[in-house]
Amino acid sequence: MIILMSILLGFCIWTILNLTFLPNLKSHFTLHEYPLISVLVPMRNEARNVQNCIAMLKNIRYENIEIIIYEDQSTDSTYSLLLQEIGDDTRFQVIRGEPLKEGWIGKVHACYQLRQHAHGRFLAFIDADVTLHQHTLTYAIARAKQYNASLVTGFPKFHYTNWLDKMLIPMMHFIVYFHLPIALANFTKIPATTAANGAFMFFETTSYDQVGGHEAVKSSLVEDIHIAQILKRNGHRVLLTNVTDCVHCHMYETSKETWEGFSKNIFVGIGRSIPMALGLTLFYSLLYIVPFIFGVYGVTTWQPLFILPFIITVIHRMICDIASKTPIVYSLGISGSVVALLCILWRSVVLSKTGASYTWKGRSYK
C-alpha cells in the first residue's frame, strides 16, 4: 500500500513539474507588424455550429485577416446558413467542396483545399465547433515569433453536453499533461515527444508548405499529431501551449458522437500497437482502477489507509483539471473515466483488426 501511494504521489509531483514547461498562449510579447493571417475552417454537416462560428469569427480583433470556409458537401443546411450569417462581410470566402479524392481523409482533404485558396503568412486552422477569444490570433502570432515556432497548438477548454463527454474528454488533457514530457515537446525536435490538437493549429505558412502541408498526411486519422511530427523531423519547432483561456471547443452533442469520435482516433493515436494497448490497460487498471476498489473496501470496513490511494488519484486528476479549466468535481470520476477510456480503446482495437470501418460525418474510414 505504501509503495502504491508513493508511486501515485510521484505522479502528482511529476505532473506539477511537467506543467511548468507549458506556456500560456496569452502573451505580453509586443508585435511590431501584423501580417496577414488566413483563418481556415473546414465544415461538413455543421448546421448547428454555423451561427456561433460566424458570429465568433466576425468578432475577432485582428484586422489583417482573411476567413475561408470549406463547405465539404454537407447534407444538411450548412451552406445556406453560411450565406445567411456571413451576409456582405467581405473578409469571408466560402469554397464549395469537391468530391473526396481516393486515399484522402475528409477533414485532411478539406484543409488541403483551404490552403490552396489562402494567402496569409500564417494559417490558422480551426474546427467549426471552436470559439476563439477576440485576441487569440494576436496571442498566437506573438508566441510563434517569441519561440520561433512553425506551429503553435494546444488543447482547448472543452464544454460538455452528455455524460460520456464528462467522463472521456477531460482525459485528453490528463493524458497529455501526465505522459508527455512537455519540456522535450517544446524545446527539442524529437518527433516522438509531440502533441497537437486539430481544433487549433496555427502554422507559419512557409514551414507548412515546406513539409508538404496536409497532403503529406492525407490518409491519417490523427493528422494533427502526424503533421506536427513531420515539422519536427524537418527541423522546425512545434510549440504546445495552454490555450484554455482563449480557445474553447464543444466537440460532441450526443454520447453516440463521443463514442464514435474516440473510437476513430484512440487506437490510431497509439500507432495501432497492440503491445501499447495492453501496456496502457495494465498500467491504468493497476494504478487508477485498483485504488478505487481499495477505497470501496476501506469505506465498507472502516480502514482509512485503503482509501488514501484513491484520494491521491483524485488529486492527480485534479491537478490536470485545474490546469485545463475543467470543473474539478469531475476529478472524482477518475476511475470511471479510465474504465470508459479502456472500453473505447479495445473497441477501437477490434474495429481496426477486423477491418471494420469507422464512421464519421457520413463517411467511413478504416
TrEMBL record:
Keyword RNA-binding attached: no
One Pfam short name: Glycos_transf_2
Alphabetic keyword roster: Membrane, Transferase, Transmembrane, Transmembrane helix
InterPro entries named in the record: Glyco_trans_2-like, Nucleotide-diphossugar_trans
Stretches that traverse the bilayer: 6-25, 274-296, 302-320, 327-349
Signal peptide: none
Protein name per UniProt: Glycosyltransferase
Lineage: Bacteria, Bacillati, Bacillota, Bacilli, Bacillales
